[in-house]
Amino acid sequence: MKVVDYKAELQNELQDLAQKNKKIGFVPTMGALHKGHISLIKKSVSENDITVVSVFVNPNQFNDKNDLKNYPRFIDKDVELIKNAGCDFVFTPSVKEIYPKEDNRIFDFGDLNKVMEGKQRNGHFNGVAQVVSKLFNIVKPDVAYFGRKDFQQYVIIKKMVKMLNMSIEIVDCPIVRETDGLAMSSRNLHLTDIQRNNSSLISKTLFKARNLTNKLSVKELKDWVVDAINENPFLDVEYFDIVDDLELKSISNWQENNNKVGCIAVKVGKIRLIDNVNFNL
Predict the structure, then answer these.
(1) How far apart are CA 34 and CA 188, in angstroms?
(2) Most buried residue, 19, 44, 69, 94, by CB count within 10 Å?
(3) Angle, helix 151-163 to helix 124-139, in steps of 10 degrees
(4) Which residues fall within 8 angstroms of residue 70, CB to CB, at 6 or more apart?
(5) Residue 174 and residue 188: Cα distance in Å, rounded?
(6) Is 124 a catalytic residue?
(7) What is the pTM of this model?
């Protein structure tokens, strides 16, 4: 495995491989890797000739500068984990390497980035689109892998690829969970023991909710989920919505003919956790 800091060097390496018709898979990350990230890397390794993983904490997607400052960074540990997963190249650029000048592009995603996470984190998805489009132009992958925990991000990246006429297949991979059901996240590292123990209620409530669609209306179920989680003094629901999986529009009844995803964000102290489940009836 080769660790590369500069885009020109990585592009030279990958250009030679692409000319040899090697299929390139790509996993963009912000580091602080866990088993969820590793599952994406292993899937890419199993499905492609070459796998590239980037480790870059993107300042443009943080609307809270303290969140950026406190984001966990374990580059040596991350590189070792990536190597053990069978990766071929790790791209570890500096901020100056990715943003030699300010990126002022504004992406128009319609309503996709105005709901849920987009509503709570102004400018977040525009920053995501800026960095992912730059990384795609550097790596030029055939396939890119994203975790389904960040479901809204996955939908927006698919939209971005279409908008920019990129011939990249975007693959979403299942959420990897802890033994008690909590979705794996780099942010879990910031939880105290008692916060961590109580956070498992989020996924447990979502799983129970899937079994209540024949008893409760959509509105009743949304209220039930919020009330069940907010009863716990350590948890505070920011939003819970059940949306279609293409346009992220709130559904109003179970009969709507589309795939339905229940998406949630919960504050645990100062930490925000997100999760989602399918409501495919």
Answers:
(1) 10
(2) 44
(3) 60
(4) 190
(5) 18
(6) no
(7) 0.95
Q: Which residue has the tokens 């990766």?
A: 87
The CA distance from 135 to 129, in Å, is 10
Asked if 238 and 267 touch (Cβ cutoff 8 Å), the reply is yes
Single out the catalytic residue among 34, 37, 124, 190: 37
What are the chain's domains? 2-173 (3.40.50.620), 186-275 (3.30.1300.10)
In degrees and rounded to multiples of 5, residue 271 shows phi and psi of -95, 135
| Residue range 50-78: mean pLDDT, rounded | 92
Q: d(Cα 247, Cα 65) in Å, to the nearest integer?
A: 30
Amino acid at 202: I
For 175-186, write each residue's pLDDT tens digit. 999 999 999 999
pLDDT in tens, 122-142: 999 999 999 999 999 999 999
